[in-house]
Amino acid sequence: MLREKLKQYNVILASKSPRRQQFFKDLDIDFKIQLKEVEEIYPPELKGTEITDFLADLKAQAFSNLTEKDLLITSDTIVWLDEKALGKPKDEADAFNMLRSLSGKKHEVITSISIKSKFFKKIISDVTTVSFKELSDDEINYYIKNYKPFDKAGAYGIQEWIGFIAIDNLEGSYFNVVGLPVHKLYKELMIL
Asked: Phi and psi (nearest 5°) for 110?
């Protein structure tokens, strides 16, 4: 359905995330990938959704020369725990500390999407609440060693081993935790 709906656009996905790219394929969107390096720094006073909205928009601003047919989609995801954003871990120690901090607690996964053309821009977001069981150091180390979650906000992928064994409860979209609230993206693209 979306392939037909978006046929007048050159859809550009500005994401190197293989999960987001797969979602676009699964939604049957004809798209190309274009990447621009952006330093993901946000004002320290921003909280929760304000951070992901800001970063999704920042990534979109890097594309200043869109044509009339271009439709650019950028996105950003964070894990929000105890009034603090957890992005992608820098190394094994950082990943361990993130997972240790998530152990036995609830956190939010927040994703924002910017949909931008030469004529308009819209930012949408989604929040999912995730509950983790208590994790042992051995479980955390096993996951980091075997799954190397360095490209994932909060140092985990819900679709991987850690998601199977650690997640007690989920309130909201599973796909948002994977990296894209596809139900909201679909709805917005269908009304273009």
From this structure: -120, 125
